[in-house]
């Protein structure tokens, strides 16, 4: 038996003993996820046990180094763990922007002290993070951001406004892009970390067309941030921001697509023309799933083009929007019900409307195409 | 899905440099077209495939082949597609080789494939659309053998083939998988008429007429009435291989188009500076990457004998044909007027895509297969 085989059998036995049955039920929506944080209320005893058991082994972030709260697993072991979790339908013990976005950026750009302090909190689900990127005047043109961080000697003084801050009203800390110089657009940005309970921070939820409010407006009014809570150098925050966006795009590209399997098998379309469209979609979805697998392997092996998350994000989100359009078509008038219990409070139309944001958030499809044209295809003037 | 191994990367490099050099459009495709070659491809190049060991990729080591599989074949096919190299590789060394593998027929034909002396073809279609279950070519028992009557169409390499793996019906009725039998039909079988058809891409396909072709029982490949198994094996290998070749066609056309966008000036600017074209080029790039992953996935599943291999072969063929079609259409459009001329190569990609897209079933055939195999 190889080391990997014995790792697999040990992992299987451990999961069998430690993953509560309730945590092996499929998640019905984002609301079933465990986000952690200072104010988190566990939805069940099982959810708490599962997080604690996994965090103790460092398996909420299996491939991070052990010193930073991770599991220290190799890429092959990480894959085995993922496969074994899938085998029993285990839910992720912890979902967070700390894991998917800030963590990778800290691993690359953080000081040793920052890594020890923040990564451990993330791995254990103690601190819930939100992302302060977009502003009312800086959407696609993100580097045009105006939120100011003034150098006051022993602290930064932050003033301005962010928008589309996901779950800012539930988050404990924010990683925030601020302007520390006006001399250069991209070269005047710094990447700050601060507590959302700092005086001067306030949030206001935004109601979406889907009826939910996953995003907020976030306001900063003379917010004092300790000088050492900066990632990377002053005015070099754009590098950190771009690296983090790569991870965000990688995450968004897979959203919603792994779920549900074949659309045709779920919807059983009787209309021959709809069946044909759904079959065309299923071909594209299965082909994209192959691309996701290949991309993940290439990304881990360092063989992927640095701009390739943009391609994945573009293709994945456009596909997810198409999936939702077809779900609406297949559902007919049932898919119009917004409140009934039998429609699970309008799950289909709410998902359809929410999916429209997929190709906007994290950089629009058009921005991703610009990036592919410039950095991968090297077209002139792009 | 696994990344390519070092050995596979080496094979890919070998195939890429060999085909870019020896198999280029100028040296092969245009050359044989200009001189009106009756087979539509060069036998000397086929011998070179053999010398490099490429014809033995799908042939087991016990028969003297490389004992590799669909993944390695896909790497070669992508390079064939990129260079539009006319070659019997897909039909002979992949599809027909898979059909006869493990049968008595292999002993007879594998040596010729390995040496590059033999060309094999696969005769399945009987009408303008691929429908293998609807095989109707009649094979009646007669004495110790069979007598075949009927027609076959779109037999790629059927003109130059030394032997044609032919699907015929010994039982059941068209539409049923039971009752199909595969026969090894030699090119000089009495009663066989081979009618050569020049196709849109200057390749040659045959229309075959079987007028009382008498065959011995030992011409049967596999089991009588049980031909569906080797046939579907060959068709999955063929579809997955055609997908890889289509990815090559798509990549070749898009590389040519991107070059043009970087050179051509209008309104005092390189046309590649226009965002209207940049976004289409970026979309195409993304689609080609997805198609390549699908083709690779199908090949790897075929090699591991996975239950889902047939599904993924159909996904790969449908996706790759769709994407290659987009690539050649965008290619001709973005080249503007020059793209409409015979002198420019971009149009050759469009013609090749049309033929490969149809081979072993078109986009609609394979989408329907995906639906059926997914249970709807």
Largest interface, with counts of residues having CB < 8 Å to the other chain, equals: A-B, 41 and 43 residues
The assembly state of the depicted protein chains is heterodimer
Tell me the major beta sheet of chain A.
Answer: 4 strands, mixed
Low-pLDDT residue intervals, each spanning 5 or more residues of chain B: none
CATH topology of the largest domain in chain A, what is it called? Butyryl-CoA Dehydrogenase, subunit A, domain 3
Under the CATH scheme, the architecture of the largest domain in chain B is Up-down Bundle
Residue share in β-strands of chain A: 5-15%
A few lines on this structure:
Chain A is an alpha+beta fold.
Structural account:
The complex is a heterodimer of chains A (382) and B (376). Chain A is an alpha+beta fold. Chain A is built from eleven helices and eight strands. Chain A has helices at residues 3-18, 45-57, 75-87, 97-109, 112-123, 237-253, 263-267, 272-300, 308-331, 347-355, 365-376, and strands at residues 129-132, 148-151, 155-166, 173-179, 189-195, 201-206, 215-226, 230-231. In chain A, the strands form two sheets. Chain A has a four-stranded mixed sheet. In chain A, a hairpin with an 8-residue loop joins strand 6 and strand 7 (215-226). Chain A is globular, with a radius of gyration of 22 Å. The relative contact order of chain A is 0.08. The mean pLDDT of chain A is 93. By secondary structure, chain B is α+β, with helices and mostly antiparallel strands. In chain B, 51% of the residues lie in helices and 16% in strands. Chain B has eleven helices and ten strands. In chain B, the strands form three sheets. A four-stranded mixed sheet of chain B has the order 1-4-5-8, with helices on one face. A four-stranded antiparallel sheet of chain B has the order 2-3-7-6, with no helix packed on it. The two termini of chain B are 26 Å apart. The mean pLDDT of chain B is 97. The chains are: A alpha+beta (382), B alpha+beta (376). The interface between A and B is large, with 41 and 43 residues.
């Amino acid at each position: 038996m190889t080391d990997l085989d014995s790792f697999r059998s040990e992992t299987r036995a451990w999961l069998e003993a430690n993953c509560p049955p309730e945590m092996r039920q499929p998640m019905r929506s984002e609301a079933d996820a465990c986000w952690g944080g200072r104010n988190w209320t566990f939805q069940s005893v099982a959810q708490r046990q599962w997080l604690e058991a996994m965090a103790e082994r460092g398996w909420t972030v299996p491939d991070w180094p052990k010193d930073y709260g991770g599991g220290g697993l190799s890429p092959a072991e990480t894959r085995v763990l993922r496969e074994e979790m899938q085998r029993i339908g285990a839910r992720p013990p912890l979902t967070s922007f700390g894991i998917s976005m800030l963590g990778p950026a800290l691993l690359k750009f953080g000081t040793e002290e920052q890594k020890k302090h923040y990564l451990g909190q993330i791995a254990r689900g103690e601190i819930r993070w939100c992302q302060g990127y977009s502003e009312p005047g800086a959407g696609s043109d993100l580097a045009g951001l105006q939120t100011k961080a003034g150098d006051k000697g022993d602290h930064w003084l932050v003033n301005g406004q962010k928008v589309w801050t996901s779950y800012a009203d539930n988050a404990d800390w924010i990683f925030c892009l601020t302007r520390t110089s006006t001399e250069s657009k991209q070269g005047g940005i710094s990447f700050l970390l601060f507590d959302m309970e700092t005086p001067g921070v306030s949030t206001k939820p935004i109601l979406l067309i889907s009826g939910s409010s996953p995003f907020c407006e976030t306001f900063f009014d003379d917010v004092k941030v300790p000088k050492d809570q900066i990632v990377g150098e002053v005015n070099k925050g754009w590098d950190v921001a771009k690296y983090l966006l790569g991870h965000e795009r990688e995450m968004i590209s897979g959203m919603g697509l792994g779920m549900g399997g074949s659309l045709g098998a779920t919807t059983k379309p009787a209309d021959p023309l709809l069946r044909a469209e759904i079959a065309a979609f299923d071909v594209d979805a299965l082909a994209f799933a192959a691309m996701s697998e290949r991309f993940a392997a290439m990304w881990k092996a360092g063989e992927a083009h640095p701009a390739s998350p943009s391609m994945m994000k573009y293709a994945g989100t456009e596909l997810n929007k198409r999936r939702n359009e077809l779900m609406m078509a297949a559902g007919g008038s049932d898919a119009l019900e917004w409140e009934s219990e039998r429609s699970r409070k309008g799950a289909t139309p709410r998902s359809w409307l929410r999916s429209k944001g997929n190709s906007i958030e994290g950089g629009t499809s058009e921005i991703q195409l610009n990036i592919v044209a410039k950095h991968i295809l090297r077209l002139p003037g792009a | 899905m696994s990344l390519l191994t070092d050995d596979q990367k080496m094979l890919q490099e070998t195939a890429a440099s060999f085909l870019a050099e020896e198999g280029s459009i100028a040296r092969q495709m245009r050359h044989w077209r200009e001189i009106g070659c009756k087979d539509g491809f060069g036998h000397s190049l086929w011998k070179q495939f053999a010398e490099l060991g490429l014809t033995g990729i799908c042939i087991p080591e016990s028969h003297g082949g490389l004992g590799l599989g669909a993944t390695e074949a896909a790497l070669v096919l992508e390079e064939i597609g990129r260079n539009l190299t006319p070659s019997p590789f897909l039909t002979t060394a992949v599809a027909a080789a898979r059909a006869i593998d493990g049968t008595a027929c292999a002993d007879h034909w594998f040596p010729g494939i390995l040496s590059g002396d033999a060309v094999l073809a696969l005769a399945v279609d009987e009408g303008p659309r691929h429908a293998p279950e609807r095989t109707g070519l009649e094979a009646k028992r007669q004495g110790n053998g069979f007598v075949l009557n009927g027609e076959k169409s779109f037999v790629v390499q059927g003109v130059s083939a030394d032997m044609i793996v032919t699907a015929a019906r010994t039982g059941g009725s068209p539409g049923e998988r039971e009752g199909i039998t595969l026969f090894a039909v030699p090119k000089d079988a009495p009663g066989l008429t081979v009618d050569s058809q020049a196709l849109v891409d200057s390749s040659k396909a045959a229309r075959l007429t079987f007028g009382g072709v008498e065959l011995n029982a030992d011409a049967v490949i596999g089991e009588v009435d049980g031909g569906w198994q080797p046939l579907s094996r060959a068709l999955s290998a063929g579809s997955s291989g055609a997908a890889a070749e289509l990815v090559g066609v798509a990549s070749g056309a898009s590389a040519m188009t991107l070059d043009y966008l970087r050179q051509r000036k209008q309104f005092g600017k390189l046309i590649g500076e226009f965002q209207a074209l940049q976004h289409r080029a970026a979309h195409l790039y993304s689609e080609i990457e997805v198609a390549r992953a699908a083709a690779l996935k199908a090949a790897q599943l075929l090699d591991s004998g996975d239950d889902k291999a047939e599904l993924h072969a159909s996904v790969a063929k449908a996706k790759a044909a769709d994407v290659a079609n987009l690539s050649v259409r965008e290619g001709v459009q973005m080249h503007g007027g020059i793209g409409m001329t015979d002198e420019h190569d971009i149009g050759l990609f469009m013609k090749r895509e049309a033929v490969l897209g149809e081979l072993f079933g078109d986009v609609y055939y394979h989408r329907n297969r995906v639906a059926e195999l997914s249970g709807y």
